[in-house]
Amino acid sequence: MKACTDKRCPFPGYRLTPKNGRTYEVNGVHLFTTGHQEKDVWYISFFEVGHEDAVHYVVTLDEFDLINSYHLNRISAVHPNAPRVGKYRHFKGNLYCVKNVLFSPSERRWFVSYKALYDEALASSFIRTLEDFNKDVGDREITPRFVLEAA
Fold first, then answer.
1. What are the domain boundaries of the chain?
2. Cα separation values, 62 from 19, 42, 68, 117, Å
3. pLDDT tens track for 99-136
4. Residue 116 three-state SS
5. Residue 72 · residue 117 · CB < 8 Å
6. How far, in Å, CA of 117 to CA of 109, rounded?
7. How far apart are CA 57 and CA 37, in angstroms?
8. Beta carbons of 128 and 114 less than 8 angstroms apart
C-alpha cells in the first residue's frame, strides 16, 4: 500500500473551512496512476459536513493547498452514468470496490474512486475519470472495463 509522503497531505477526518464559510471534511487521499505519468499525482477527496450524501469533491494536492481561495457550491445531483458503490470485476478478471463518485470543480470532471480487493499490497485507492471507468475496451465486441458484481 503506497502512502502519500508529501508533508502537505491531509489525513482522513481533517476539517477545513475555506472562505465560503462552509466546513468540509477530508475522506481520502488517492493515488492517480495511468502508467504514462512521470510522477505520482495525489488527489484529495472531501465532502461538505452535514451533506455527506452529496457528491464528494476531488482536487489535486497542489489545488488543495489553494483551497482557501475556492468558493465551492454544493452539488446535489449525481452524474447519471455514475457507477453504484459496490464490487466490480475488471475485464482482466480482478475484483475492485468502488468507494465514491467524485467531482472536481477545477477540472469540471467526474472521477471514480476504487480499490483493489485481490491483493492487500494494492489496498491503496485508485482514481479514474468516470468516462474511462465506463469505457468499453473490446475491439470487436462490446466489453465493459468494469462489471458490477455486488452492490
1. 15-150
2. 18, 9, 12, 29
3. 878 777 677 788 888 888 887 766 667 888 899 999 99
4. strand
5. no
6. 26
7. 23
8. yes
Provide the pLDDT for residue 122. 62
Cβ(22)–Cβ(72) below 8 Å: yes
Q: What pLDDT digit, counting tens, does each position of 18-58 carry?
A: 766 778 888 888 777 655 556 678 888 888 888 766 667 88
Q: Which amino acid is at 93?
A: G
The fold of 15-150 is SH3 type barrels. (2.30.30)
d(CA 109, CA 111): 7
Residue 89 identity (one-letter amino acid): R
Entry field: residues in the chain: 151
